[in-house]
C-alpha cells in the first residue's frame, strides 16, 4: 500500500530518519546509515503504536531499548541521543491530533521504559562477555605448556579489546594488570592504577555487604559476586559501575587471583535520576508531584506504632478568576510564587510540600506529635499567603482554604486520607474560604453519601428507580378532593426510599433536574388524564388537577414552554389540568425574561402557584406583576393553629394575606395541615384549599382516586 503524501507512514519514516542521523555516529555497526535507518524503522513504528495505544504498555518501550543493544548501539551516548530524539520528535511526528499533554506524559514514560530495557539488555550482554573473559582467564592460567603462547595471545586480545574495564589483583589486593578501558574509566595512568590497593577503594555509598562479600571471595568461600559500586576518580567526581569480581584458582584449586570486571553506568544512572526527578516533580513549580507525594504518604501511613501524620490540603480561593481575567501565564507565575512560599513553611524534619495539580497543594508532617504540628503548619501556610503577590505590575491578594486530616499511622490508606482532606477543604471553602477546618468523620460520611448519590443520579432515571407519590389538595369549603401535588421519590438500591430533600439539590447542582423534572411532569400529566377518565361518570365538584414543582434551573431552561405543550398534547390533557408550583425565592427580583415563559404558560391556561409564600420576604406589590393564580402559604404561618386557641398574631397575618390574595383574584392553598382544629380555623379565615397529613400522607395514585370517589359519591 502506498502511503498518502505526508501521511502517517511518511511522518513515521521522517522520525526514523532523524533518529538514525542522531544515533549512527556513535554506533559500532558495520551497516551504512540508510541500512541502519531501515533497522530503526520497525522500532519507530512500535514506539508510535505504544504512544497511541488505548492502554499504556511499558513492555514496548523496554523492547525498543533492548533492540538498540542488539543493533550495536551500546555506547551510553547512543541511549542519550535516542531519548533526546524521542522526547523532541515522537509526539510531533507520531502523535496525530490527540491530547498533546497526555501524549507527552506517555512519551516520558516510554523513555523511562526504553532506558530500563536498554540497561537490562546491556547488562545481560556484559555478563555474557564477562563470562567469556573469565573463562579465557581461567584457561590462560591453567593450560598446558605446549599451548601457552596461543592461549596468552587469545587472553591478551580479549583483555585489551574488551569495552568494559578489567583488572586483576592478587589475594592481598595488589593490582597486577589493568586494561585500557579501565584506565579510561578512572582517568589515570597504568602506573598510578597499579600503585593502588583494592581495599583503598571505599566509598560512602557502598552497600553494607560490599566488603563482606569481598572478604569471603579472597578467603575462597565464594566464587564471585556482583553489585553496583561507586568509586572516586582523582578529580573528585564519582564513577558508578556494575562490578563483578571472580576468584581465579590454580591447577590444584587453591585461590590465586581475583578478577574484576567493571561496566561504567554513570551516564545511565544520571539519566535514570533525571527521568525519576521529572516523573516525580511538578514541571512548573519544581515541587514534588502527586506521584511522589503518594509515595511519601504511603510510607508515613505504614510507619510503626506510635507514629502519626498530619496533612494539610490547600486549594486557592478564586484562582479561576485570576486565570480568566489575567491569563494562564499570569496564573502560572502566581502558582510559582505560592509554591515558593509554601516550601518555606515546611522545612522541619518529616515535613514536605507537593503540588497535586492546578491550584491544589498538600503539606505533610510526620512524627509522634503531629496533632500540634499540623495546626502550626496550617497557620504558617495561611500567614504565608497574607502578603500580596506581584504579577505583571498588579498586586494580587491570595487566599486559600485548607482541610486538615491528622491521626495515627496504619489505620487508613492514602486514598482515604486524601479523600477526607479534600472533603474537609471543600467544607472550609463552603464556610467562606480563607480558613482551615479539621476533618470530621460524620461530615466525611455525609459527603461521601452525597457524592455516591450524585454519581448514581444519571443512570437512576434510565433504570426506573424514581417514582411519584401524590398528596391530595382538599377544598376547605366542602372537603372535596380537587387535585394532588406530585412528589417524586427515589428508590435507591442501597439507601431505600429517599425523599426529594436528599437528591433534588444534587440534581439541581448537576443540571440533571431538567430531564428529571421533564419526566415528573410527563408522568404526572399522564396520571391526571387517567384520573379524569376514571371520574368521567361521577358528578365531582370539578376536574382533578395535578400540581408539579418547578426548580429554578427548569425556569431558565429554554425548552420549558415547548416541553410542557408537547407533554400536554401527547397526553390529550387540557392546560387547566396542570398547576406549576414555583418557590417565592426563585421569583424574587425576577426580570421580564425569567417571567416570560411563565406568562406564556399562564396565557395557555396553566395555573402558576407561588410556593412557600411568606419565606422570601418579597415585596407584596410584586404580586401584581407575577403571572400567578395561586398562593401556597408556607406552613410556618399556620403551625400555631394546630391547637385551639391559635396565636392571634398569626391569625391576623393569615387573614391579611388571604384578604390581599382574594383582592388580586388569587386562590390560597395552605400546606402542612395536621389537625382538625387547624383545618377549621383556616376555613373560617377564608383559605381555599389545603394539604397535609390531616387529610392524607403522600401515596400511590390509587389512594387519591379512592378519596376522590368517596368525596364525589358522599
Brief overview, please?
The chain is α/β, with parallel strands linked by helices and 714 residues long.
What does this 3D model show about the protein?
Residues 307-441 form the GGDEF domain. Pfam families: EAL, GGDEF, PAS_9. Residues 151-221 form the PAS domain. This is GGDEF domain-containing protein. By secondary structure, the chain is an alpha/beta fold. The chain has 4 domains: 8-131; 163-270, PAS domain (Beta-Lactamase); 283-439, Alpha-Beta Plaits, CATH 3.30.70; 456-703, Alpha-Beta Barrel (TIM Barrel), CATH 3.20.20.450. It is 50% helix and 20% strand. It has an 8-stranded mixed barrel with strand order 13-14-16-17-18-19-20-21, surrounded by 4 helices. Strands 2-1-5-4-3 form a 5-stranded antiparallel β-sheet, sandwiched between helices. It has a 5-stranded mixed β-sheet with strand order 7-8-6-11-12, sandwiched between helices. The chain is elongated, with a radius of gyration of 40 Å.
Record the SSE blueprint.
Blueprint: H1 8-23, H2 33-52, H3 58-70, H4 76-94, H5 100-142, H6 148-161, E1 165-170, E2 175-178, H7 180-186, H8 190-194, H9 210-218, E3 224-232, E4 238-249, E5 255-264, H10 266-280, H11 290-301, E6 308-317, H12 319-326, H13 328-345, E7 351-357, E8 360-367, H14 370-384, E9 389-391, E10 394-396, E11 399-408, H15 414-430, E12 435-438, H16 441-460, E13 466-475, E14 481-492, E15 496-498, H17 500-510, H18 513-534, E16 545-550, H19 552-555, H20 560-571, E17 578-583, H21 584-587, H22 592-604, E18 607-613, E19 630-633, H23 648-663, E20 667-670, H24 676-685, E21 689-690, H25 701-713
Parallel strand pairs: 11-12, 14-16, 16-17, 17-18, 18-19, 19-20, 20-21
Antiparallel strand pairs: 1-2, 1-5, 3-4, 4-5, 6-8, 6-11, 7-8, 9-10, 13-14, 13-21, 14-15
Amino acid at each position: 500500500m502506498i502511503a498518502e503524501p505526508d501521511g502517517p507512514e511518511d511522518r513515521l519514516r521522517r522520525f526514523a530518519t532523524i533518529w538514525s542521523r542522531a544515533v549512527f555516529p556513535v554506533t559500532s555497526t558495520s551497516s551504512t546509515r540508510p541500512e541502519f535507518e531501515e533497522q530503526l524503522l520497525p522500532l519507530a513504528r512500535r514506539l508510535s503504536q505504544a504512544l497511541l495505544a488505548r492502554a499504556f504498555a511499558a513492555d514496548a518501550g523496554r523492547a525498543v531499548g533492548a533492540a538498540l543493544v542488539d543493533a550495536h548501539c551500546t555506547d551510553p551516548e547512543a541511549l542519550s541521543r535516542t531519548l533526546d530524539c524521542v522526547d523532541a520528535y515522537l509526539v510531533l511526528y507520531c502523535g496525530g491530533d490527540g491530547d498533546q499533554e497526555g501524549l507527552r506524559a506517555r512519551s516520558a514514560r516510554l523513555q523511562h521504559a526504553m532506558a530500563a530495557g536498554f540497561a537490562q539488555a546491556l547488562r545481560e550482554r556484559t555478563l555474557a562477555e564477562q563470562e567469556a573473559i573469565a573463562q579465557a582467564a581461567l584457561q590462560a592460567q591453567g593450560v598446558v605448556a605446549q599451548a601457552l603462547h596461543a592461549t596468552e595471545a587469545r587472553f591478551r586480545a580479549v583483555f585489551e579489546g574488551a569495552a568494559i574495564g578489567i583488572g586483576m589483583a592478587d589475594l592481598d589486593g595488589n593490582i597486577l594488570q589493568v586494561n585500557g578501558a579501565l584506565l579510561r574509566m578512572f582517568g589515570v595512568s597504568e602506573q598510578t592504577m597499579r600503585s593502588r590497593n583494592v581495599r583503598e577503594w571505599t566509598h560512602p555509598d557502598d552497600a553494607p555487604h560490599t566488603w563482606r562479600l569481598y572478604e569471603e571471595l579472597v578467603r575462597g568461600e565464594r566464587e564471585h559476586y556482583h553489585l553496583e559500586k561507586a568509586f572516586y576518580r582523582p578529580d573528585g567526581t564519582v564513577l558508578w559501575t556494575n562490578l563483578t569480581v571472580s576468584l581465579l584458582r590454580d591447577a590444584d584449586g587453591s585461590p590465586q587471583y581475583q578478577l574484576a570486571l567493571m561496566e561504567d553506568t554513570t551516564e545511565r544512572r544520571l539519566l535514570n535520576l533525571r527521568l525519576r526527578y521529572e516523573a516525580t516533580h511538578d514541571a512548573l513549580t519544581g515541587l514534588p508531584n502527586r506521584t511522589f507525594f503518594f509515595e511519601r504518604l504511603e510510607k508515613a501511613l505504614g510507619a510503626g506504632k506510635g507514629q502519626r501524620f498530619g496533612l494539610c490540603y490547600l486549594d486557592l480561593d478564586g484562582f479561576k478568576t485570576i486565570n480568566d481575567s489575567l491569563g494562564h501565564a499570569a496564573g502560572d507565575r502566581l502558582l510559582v510564587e505560592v509554591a515558593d512560599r509554601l516550601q518555606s513553611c515546611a522545612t522541619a524534619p518529616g515535613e514536605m510540600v507537593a503540588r497535586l495539580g492546578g491550584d491544589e497543594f498538600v503539606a505533610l508532617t510526620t512524627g509522634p506529635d503531629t496533632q500540634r504540628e499540623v495546626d502550626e503548619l496550617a497557620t504558617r501556610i495561611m500567614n504565608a499567603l497574607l502578603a500580596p503577590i506581584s504579577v505583571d505590575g498588579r498586586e494580587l491578594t491570595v487566599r486559600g482554604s485548607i482541610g486538615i486530616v491528622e491521626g495515627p499511622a496504619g489505620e487508613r490508606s492514602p486514598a482515604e486520607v486524601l479523600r477526607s482532606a479534600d472533603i474537609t477543604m471543600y467544607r472550609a471553602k463552603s464556610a467562606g474560604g480563607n480558613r482551615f477546618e479539621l476533618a470530621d468523620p460524620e461530615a466525611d460520611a455525609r459527603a461521601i453519601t452525597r457524592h455516591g448519590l450524585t454519581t448514581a443520579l444519571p443512570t437512576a432515571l434510565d433504570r426506573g428507580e424514581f417514582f411519584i407519590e401524590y398528596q391530595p389538595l382538599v377544598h376547605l369549603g366542602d372537603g372535596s378532593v380537587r387535585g394532588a401535588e406530585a412528589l417524586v421519590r427515589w428508590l435507591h438500591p442501597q439507601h431505600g426510599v429517599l425523599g426529594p430533600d436528599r437528591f433534588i439539590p444534587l440534581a439541581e447542582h448537576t443540571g440533571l433536574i431538567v430531564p428529571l423534572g421533564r419526566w415528573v411532569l410527563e408522568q404526572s400529566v399522564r396520571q391526571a388524564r387517567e384520573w379524569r377518565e376514571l371520574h368521567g361518570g361521577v358528578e365531582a365538584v370539578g376536574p382533578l388537577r395535578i400540581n408539579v414543582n418547578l426548580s429554578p434551573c427548569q425556569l431558565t431552561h429554554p425548552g420549558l414552554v415547548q416541553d410542557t405543550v408537547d407533554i400536554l398534547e401527547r397526553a390529550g390533557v387540557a392546560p387547566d389540568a396542570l398547576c406549576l408550583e414555583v418557590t417565592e425565592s426563585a421569583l424574587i427580583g425576577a426580570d421580564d425574561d425569567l417571567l416570560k415563559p411563565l406568562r406564556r404558560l399562564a396565557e395557555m391556561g396553566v395555573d402558576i402557584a407561588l410556593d412557600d409564600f411568606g419565606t422570601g420576604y418579597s415585596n407584596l406589590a410584586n404580586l401584581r406583576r407575577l403571572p400567578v393564580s395561586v398562593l401556597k402559604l408556607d406552613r410556618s404561618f399556620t403551625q400555631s393553629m394546630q391547637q385551639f386557641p391559635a396565636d392571634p398574631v398569626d391569625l391576623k397575618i393569615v387573614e391579611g394575606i388571604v384578604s390581599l390574595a382574594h383582592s388580586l383574584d388569587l386562590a390560597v392553598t395552605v400546606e402542612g395541615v395536621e389537625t382538625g382544629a387547624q383545618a377549621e380555623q383556616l376555613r373560617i379565615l377564608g383559605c381555599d384549599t389545603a394539604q397535609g397529613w390531616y387529610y392524607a400522607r403522600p401515596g400511590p395514585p390509587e389512594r387519591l382516586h379512592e378519596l376522590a370517589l368517596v368525596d364525589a359519591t358522599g
